[in-house]
Amino acid sequence: MNGIIYDARRIKAYEGMQALARYAGKTEEFVANLWESLLSDKDMMKEWMYYLDHHILLDEVVCEGYSLTDLYVWQMKRYNLVQDTGKNTTDCNKEAMVLDAFATMFCMKKDPALYKERLEKGQGMDR
Q1: How many CB atoms lie within 10 A of CB 3?
Q2: Is the pLDDT of residue 127 over 50?
Q3: Which of 32, 117, 24 is nearest to 79 (CA)?
Q4: CA–CA dist 93, 60 (Å, integer)
Q5: Would the pTM of this model clear 0.90, i.e. be above it?
Q6: Cα separation of 62 and 77, whole Å?
């Protein structure tokens, strides 16, 4: 078996993502897209593994001055606005927001100007 490298951490990371996604009500397509993005970005994979181990964000990855925690808070504010509660109720799924923060960071890395504008100016009255 020379030459075979087995990375059990990635299997654990994938299984952790599947479990959190099930709990958060995310689709298999969402998981597949997020996992594919994680596999292509070692720094984000490190963030994900850290989150699984500690249930807090490491915040080493920054895009346009925004970290995963910033994107998490942005997700939470959007949830509160849509739900019109002004506070986080018990039905506010924090794991879903973490997964969304990771997905948003990948989108932001692809189109930083658009997401920076959304974060700083909001999405507009129609959204």
Answers
A1: 4
A2: no
A3: 24
A4: 24
A5: no
A6: 20
* pLDDT attached to residue 126: 46
What would the two tokens of residue 105 be? 């960071």
Give the dihedral sign, CA 13/57/119/89: positive
Q: Could you tell me the end-to-end alpha-carbon distance of the chain, in angstroms, rounded to an integer?
A: 55
DSSP the chain: -TT----HHHHHHHHHHHHHHHHHT--HHHHHHHHHHHHT-HHHHHHHHHHHHHSS-----EETTEEHHHHHHHHHHHHHHHHT-SS--TT--HHHHHHHHHHHHHHHHHSHHHHHHHHHH-S-TT-
Q: Which residue has the tokens 């910033």?
A: 70
pLDDT band at 88 (very low <50, low <70, confident <90, very high): low
Q: Which residues contact 37 (CB under 8 A, 6 or more apart)?
A: 44, 103, 106
Nearest to 76 by CA among 67, 64, 85: 85
